[in-house]
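QUALITY CONTROL LOG
STEP: pairwise intake check
CHECKER ROLE: data steward
CRITERIA: each record must contain a sequence immediately followed by its C-alpha cells, with no blank fields

ENTRY 1 OF 2
RESULT FIELD BELOW
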Amino acid sequence: MRKTYLFSLLVVSLAFISSRGFAGTETYKIDPVHSTIGFKVRHLTGKVTGRFADVTGLIHIDADHPETSSVEAEIQAKSIDTANDKRDGHLKSPDFFDVEKFATITFKSKKVTLVDKETADVLGDLTLHGVTKEVTLHVQFLGKGKGMDGSPQTGWEATTKINRADYGLVWNKLIEGTAVVGEEVDITLNIESDLAK
C-alpha cells in the first residue's frame, strides 16, 4: 500500500506555484495537525483508503522565480491509519512497510514546472521502504491567508500515483484468482503550512 506521500508530504511539494501574495523568498512549515497524506489502493473487488498522520517538512517559496522553489517532507511510516488496527499492524510489519527497519518516508523536490498561475508539476525523489525513485506531484495552490493566530498560512493539494512493487512492497495472495492487494496506489496530499519564524 504505498503512500506516499509526502509523500511529502511528502508532500507537498509544491509550493511554488503561484507567487500571488508572496514577497521575496519565504519558508513555510507543514502543519501536521491540518495536513493529510492519503492513499487509496485496490482490495479484492473494492478499494481501501488510508492516511499517514505524522508529516513534517518545509516549503521554500521564491516569489520572483517560483520555478526555483522547493519542498522537503518526512512522514513517519508507523503513523499509517486505515481505521482497522489489525490491518494497520499488518501494514507496519515486514510484509509491507517494515516500520522498525524503515521508519520514515521522505520526499525532496528536484524540479518545478509551472502549468499556470495556480498549478505546477513537482518532480522529486520519493524514498519509501529503503528505495528511492522519482515521482511527479501534480500540485494545486489553494490560497494564502492568515491562520488562527494571525500569521501567514498557505494551502496546497497534490496528487500522484505509484506502483508499490517499485518500492519492494510485493506481498500479496490470490483468492480464487483475484489479488488481495492491487499494485497501483493513488496518493492525495492536502497540506496546510505556516510561515516559519
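ENTRY 2 OF 2
RESULT FIELD BELOW
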Amino acid sequence: MADIMKFNERGSKTVIENGTVFSPKFDHDGLIPAIATDAVSGEVLMVAYMNDEALSLTLQTGEAHYWSRSRGKIWKKGETSGHTQVVTQILTDCDQDAIWLKVNMSGQGACHVGYKSCFYRSVELSEPGASEPRLVFSETRKVFQPKDVYD
C-alpha cells in the first residue's frame, strides 16, 4: 500500500483562499466531504467522505477512495461492484474544506442501491398548508441490481 501523504499545515486565510498550497481542512472526525461528478456530463454521482488516507490514495492512484463511516474503513469505489471511478480532476473549494472529484465511471452506476447517481430522488417542495415535503423519483429505472453485485 502507498504511504499516506502528509498534507500541509493550514496557513493564513489569505494563503488558504488565494494561494497554491494544498492544505485540506478535515473536520473533528478527520473527514472531509467529497462530491463525485461525471467528468463528461457533469452529473452529480455521489457524496462521500475522505480521511487523509483516502485522499492520499486517491491522489496517488488516480482512482477514488473514500472513508466508509458505516464500516469504519477505507474503501476503493468499485472494489466489490466493479463500478470504479477514475479521477480526471480534483478540485477544492475556497476554504479547502470540501473536495470535488470529476470522474469517469467504469460500470453501470455509482449508487449502491442500483441507480446511476445517488441523487435519484428530488424533494418536492411543500405547498402552503401541506404537512410535509415528499420524495419524487427522478430516475425511474435502476441500471443494475444490487443483489447481483454485492454479497
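INTAKE CHECK: passed for both entries
DESCRIPTIVE NOTE, ENTRY 2: The radius of gyration is 17 Å.
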